[in-house]
């Protein structure tokens, strides 16, 4: 079984291009929303780099694969960025 959901979030990046935090997160499925709020969207974006010091709108694809085998049921979740749009650049410079 495979379930694919699309969502979006507004992320803020630091000087290194890593996600500082995510805001205005939307998930079309309450179960997916609960899961990503508990784990944290930043967990999945931890190894990704974006434009530094920016506010970025991302559209992401959430995939959940459910496998049943001899040992029971296993779940595998993945998030892929479908689109990203820079909303504002050099935001940390503007706040100073």
UniProtKB/TrEMBL annotation:
This is Uncharacterized protein. It comes from Sporanaerobacter acetigenes DSM 13106.
């Amino acid at each position: 079984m495979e379930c694919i959901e699309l969502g979006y979030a507004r992320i803020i990046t630091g000087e290194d291009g890593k996600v500082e935090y995510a805001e205005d997160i939307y998930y079309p499925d309450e179960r997916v929303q609960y899961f990503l709020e508990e784990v944290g969207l930043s967990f999945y974006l931890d190894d990704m780099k974006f434009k530094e010091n920016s506010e970025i709108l991302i559209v992401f694809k959430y995939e959940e694969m459910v496998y049943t085998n001899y040992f029971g049921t296993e779940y595998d979740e993945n998030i892929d960025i479908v689109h990203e749009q820079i909303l504002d650049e050099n935001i940390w410079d503007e706040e100073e």
